[in-house]
Amino acid sequence: MQNTTAAATEGIALKCGITGSYEFIFTLVPIVYGCNFVIGIVGNSMVVAVIYCYMKLKTVANIFVLNLAISDLTFLITLPMWATFTATGYTWPFGGFLCKASGGLVMFNLYTSIFFLTALSIDRYLAIVHPMRSRRLRTVMYARITCVLIWLFAFMLSVPSALTRDVHKFTNYTKVCGILHPTLENAVSLKKVLLAISLMKSLLGFLIPFIIIITCYCLIGRALVGARHIQKSSRSRDDEVLRMLAAAVLAFFLCWVPHQVFHLMQMLSQLKLVESCAILDIIDTAMPFTICIAYFNSCVNPIVYGFVGHNFRKNLLRLLRCSPNAATGPHLSISSKMSALSFRASEALSLTAKGKASSDVK
């Protein structure tokens, strides 16, 4: 509901009315939120439990995956409130503080989730393409420092979103949790702040990380394909890693692109470039469903980054059976499997370089 507003004595009078207000939204969206909540809580809790109890925090990838799961869990606890908000016809009964906190946590999860995915992509690139040169950088200490910096940076980026949200009372006495509405005194400054938040969400929350992720995966794919020509026996393992990387990129893209497209349209409406009530109604009707898809990324992450590995599934079964953490030998994690693959890839690439050098000498 980002349409043009003006102050009124009994509340906020909307130029186009409360757009995007339909019964099927109030029924369907809360159901989807509920499914996301249950699936996300169970999946991410299992990831945290398996990594902490069995796989331990001894690898860079495990640390990033654990923090990613915790980030998703902190966001998922707000979904029951958003489900109630939608089911009651966009009526917010939880007060101003929870409105600000929940809105801030949504943006906080957006940034932390995407930053951790980016960190994972960079770590995989270094582990596979530059395994020897990156040993000093790919340590547990540096990974923990990176996680702290990500949490702090994401918190700083999410604070403006929390501060610019509040509970608004409309002329029909409906209380809505939404962004602040301009007054005569702060119209220009508030417009600039909201525009800056929207630009940060599009650039730092999607476009720049997506470019980094795509670049890393393309370089990884090129290195693995080049190594395959030297070591034919590793083809099945290469295929497994490439499939996982492709699934990660595809999940990220499919979950966030629809929301970012309508977010861009919403930003155009804030700039008064789109003022048609019909278009605003389309935006506000589609936005809850694009948000549902984006929130589903919190459910997909445990599948893409945890359950794809045979060792993870084995440890999950041990957790469900309440098996003790016996010292049965080292457990291979996602990163250790990739590291083993990266050494084979680097050896193959070095053999290729030596072969070319010897041919040049001859």
Furnish the topology, listing elements before pairings.
Layout: E1 5-8, E2 11-14, H1 23-55, H2 60-76, H3 79-87, H4 95-129, H5 140-163, E3 165-169, E4 175-179, H6 187-228, H7 235-270, H8 277-295, H9 297-307, H10 310-320, H11 334-361
Antiparallel strand pairs: 1-2, 3-4
Helix pairs in contact: 1-2, 1-3, 1-8, 1-9, 1-10, 2-4, 2-5, 2-9, 4-5, 4-6, 4-11, 6-7, 6-11, 7-8, 7-9
Write up this protein.
- The chain is mainly alpha-helical.
- The chain has a single domain (5-321, 329-348), classed as Rhodopsin 7-helix transmembrane proteins (Rhopdopsin 7-helix transmembrane proteins, Up-down Bundle), CATH 1.20.1070.10.
- Helices cover 73% and strands 5% of the residues.
- It has 11 helices and 4 strands.
- The termini are far apart.
- The relative contact order is 0.15.
- It is found in: Cell membrane.
Short overview:
By secondary structure, this protein is mostly helical.
Number of domains: 1
Distance between the termini: 72 Å
Q: Average pLDDT across residues?
A: 77
In CATH, the topology is named: Rhopdopsin 7-helix transmembrane proteins
Rg over alpha carbons: 24 Å
Q: Identify the overall geometry.
A: globular
Structural class: mainly alpha
Range of strand content? under 5%
- Write out the strand line-up for the largest beta sheet, numbering strands in chain order: 1-2
CATH superfamily: Rhodopsin 7-helix transmembrane proteins
CATH class label: Mainly Alpha
Segments where pLDDT lies below 50 for 5+ residues? Answer: 1-11, 327-362
Number of helices: 11
Main sheet: strands, sense, barrel: 2 strands, antiparallel
Protein name: Type-1 angiotensin II receptor
Subcellular location: Cell membrane
Pfam families: 7tm_1
Membrane topology: Multi-pass membrane protein
